[in-house]
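Researcher: Re-running this chain for the archive, since the previous output was lost when a drive failed. Same request as before.
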Amino acid sequence: MPFKLNIESNYSFVSDASEELKFFLIGKNVNKEKITFIELILTEALNNVIQHSYDSRTGNMIEISGDISENLLELKINDFGNPRENFIIKAPEFNAEDVNSLPESGMGLHVINELADSLHYESNQGKNIFTINVDLGKT
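Model: Regenerated structure tokens:
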């Protein structure tokens, strides 16, 4: 049975969604290390939707769904807020030896890209669809 969850665009619900996905993945016997990465992916993606798509406004719908087929997790996050202007993923610029140079924001999409195997974004008729694929067999 696939994973399905709807949450309100509120940062306080992000950890609950991550926990729900974790229980789904445990039930599918996914490796604990992979689960940790997937929880981080979902957390970053939901925070991005709330901040950018909904301008941090609460009370808006976010649909989360996922399924595993042939060792591949396909995770979809749908929202009905502002579409992304572009989907360019850039590595953040900072000096790794200077903790003060770390950016305070703007790293979420980069983190997701580093942990996932493929990403796809589209906006169609007021619905934004962010698809994230994670190969559960890769370590």
